[in-house]
Amino acid sequence: MTTGHDTTAASPSTEGGAAPGRPPGDAAAVEKERRHRARLSRRWQRDVRWSPYAFVSPFFLLFVAFGLFPLVYTGWASLHKVELTAPTDMDWVGLRNYTRIFDDEFFWNAAQNTLTIGIISTVPQLLMAMGLAHILNYKLRGSTFYRVAMLAPYATSIAAASLVFVLLFGRDYGMINWALGLVGVDNIDWQNETWASQIAVSTIVIWRWTGYNALIYLAAMQAIPQDLYESAALDGANRWQQFFHVTLPSLRPTILFTTVVSTIGASQLFGEPLLFDANKGASGGSQHQFQTLGLYLYEQGWVNQHLGRASAIAWTMFLILILIGIVNYVISRRLRASS
Amino acid sequence: MTTTLTPPDPDQAEKAPQRSRRPRAARAGGQMHAGPVAYVVLALFTIGSLFPLVWTAIAASRDNNRLAQTPPPFWFGANLFDNLELAWTDANLGEAFLNTTIVAGISAATIVFLSTIAGFAFAKLRFKGRGALMLIVIGTMMVPPQLSVIPLYMMVAKLDWTDQLQAVIFPSLVSAFGVFFMRQYLIQALPDEIIEAARMDGASSWRVVWHVVFPAARPAMAVLGMLMFVQTWNDFLWPFLVLTQTGNPTVQVAVAGLGRGYTPDQSLIMAGALLGTLPLLVVFAIFGKQIVGGIMQGAVKG
């Protein structure tokens, strides 16, 4: 790199002499060396100045092309009537797509299902992950084995996991109903009853993500300085008090992070309800029992072929997420201020 | 939760005399040994994690009729290889495996490269707008991918890329998580002095990246590569939308097709699910420790 030719020539030097005490014959060489240095240093400065941008620009270019532009364009498309059969023909309809989905009982049904499934999958998942992380934080024999085993569901795809759980949750011959039968519970129709099907879909999510979240909590727990516990112990705090007064407050940013990530994940739930459906449709059960917003978006866009309406659903989901984010932020600020 | 933990073992004070002087409670938080109840809880969770996977193999090894009986089978039958072979040909899994390997390989390699140079810039270089740009990177992690799906689909349709692998590859070439992850790693793994020394010797930025950053980041690059490979391999929504089962399916699209093709043969579906998951489980069995370390590494705030 240092040998490369520089197009901007070094400015001619105005000062003449070499350093005193040097033989006069060296003056030209020194001057040449000095110019070379000056050129290099200019190159170097330019390199230092611009290379950070060169390093981060591929990410941003690709993000603009495949993240930001689609985001904005979805908003634009949501104001048009666009059909899947001719995605380039767009007729301006203003906010009609939005008013239509707000009048659509299936949209509200999907929104409610998404909320319910989101809560019954995220809350137990994060609570169990916290408990697991707490146990894993003790000195354990074979701790690596438990960590890897708990992460194995994360390596399983949505497709494979959902298909397996369809069988496990089978009404007549499923293992879960068989096990429940042993304790005297009648067969539950996991794919058709509203609550049962929503619990079943949540189970797939919980199964796949609990271990992953436990590892994230564990990492945060291990970063808590030990002397916090020691001083709490000296103040007479027992282990429960230590957990509530040292561990939980220290984990607050991590808990916020996992809550946000899980909320986003829950709002996008798509593959699990799609594949859990016995009718092989996109309606989330014969009576839309577990149709999520993600599935409803797919049904509107790709089954009913209304891409404009699907865009409006996507943007509504986005706005709801932003709202949740703001609420989250306000609550965490309040909590911080009060403590 | 914590209620399942037993009090510390009374013998422990004898085993570790140097600790017995401190108050017992002071040994909480990573130092105390777990009691038997903790092991029971861990065992239950481990069984819960692994059982559905093991049972996939059991169901795949059975005759379809046996799966429609109570009690369900708990042990392996004789049909495993027949079912695997049938699923392999039925779902065209050979081609799907090749497709998925190409997609996941290209995505993971590109993500690792781009994340390392961007993460290096965010971790170690000073430049105007660094904080704001990093905030944007983190912000992009919050944008749901479903928002981009519709225009992406329009773009792909316009480019005539439907059913082509590049339709899946291009949108998956960047990962905000990757940038964040490499930044976290490089902040602590790469001392400023080494970069300064290389700079003193007149190395250009690319030379620094090549000869200093890449060697220092290699462990994190390996972990990120595996994580991204797993993620791309398992990706479902977008491949499901742009690829059909007949044109260049990925493994997940092909496996989902088994379940959605009105195939009554459950053992066949399970065989497909098993095949779709197996390569990643093997990777996990070998590199599980590194992957666990990598996830925990990426989780800690810097």
Task: Please provide a brief summary of the model.
Chain A has 339 residues and is mainly α.
Describe this structure in words.
- Chain A has helices at 27-77, 96-102, 105-136, 143-155, 158-168, 175-182, 194-222, 226-234, 239-250, 252-267, 271-276, 293-303, 307-338; strands at residues 80-83, 86-92.
- With 339 residues, chain A is mostly helical.
- Chain A has 2 domains: 26-67; 98-338, Orthogonal Bundle (MetI-like fold).
- Chain A has a two-stranded antiparallel sheet with strand order 1-2.
- In chain A, a hairpin with a 2-residue loop joins strand 1 and strand 2.
- In chain A, helix 8 runs antiparallel to helix 9 (239-250).
- The longest helix of chain A is centred in the N-terminal third of the chain and has 51 residues, at 27-77.
- The radius of gyration of chain A is 30 Å and the shape is extended.
- The relative contact order of chain A is 0.11.
- Chain B has 302 residues and is mostly helical.
- Chain B has a single domain, classed as MetI-like (MetI-like fold), CATH 1.10.3720.10.
- Chain B is 69% helix and 0% strand.
- Chain B is built from 14 helices and no strands.
- The two termini of chain B are 28 Å apart.
- Classes of the chains: A mainly alpha (339), B mainly alpha (302).
- At the A-B interface, helix 1, helix 3, helix 4, helix 5 and helix 6 of A face helix 2, helix 5, helix 6, helix 7 and helix 11 of B.
